[in-house]
Amino acid sequence: MNTKNLPYRKGVNAYVIDSQNNFLLVQKKSYGENQWDVSGGGLEEGESMEIGILRELEEELGTHKFKILAKSSKIDKYEWPKEARENGYRKHGKWWRGQKKYQFLVKFIGSKNELKAQKEEIRLIKWVPYEQLEDTLYSGGLSRELNLGALLQDILAPLL
Question: For residue 124, what are the contacts with CB-CB under 8 A and spacing of at least 6?
């Protein structure tokens, strides 16, 4: 299959902060024990990015207590390996070459005991300070065009 003609699936990532500006990370069940990522996922057909990010957060973390603070101008675009393309087709009936993810800075406005990780997909959640974020995030071995440092500077501008 020639993947160059396939579209990218649109998705969203949430850089969730708490009241002390710590970042919420998730450990997916498919990851190793030292691999962490931000919450997010693919958009449903016709779904806006803002609705999609709030839906993904509620699905993955069991609460709706989030407030969008900013949308980054940076896009995380990457190719999927063959297995991921096939999984996407089985799950959604569509072929994509990879994902194009839009980044949001989101504030968690609830109590931390309200967070309930989605058991089917997420093993653990944890909060880390900004200084540990770049070293803790896992790229999954995907070929990404986005520079994480540039993204963090862009997404955190409202906090500075």
Answer: 26, 27, 117
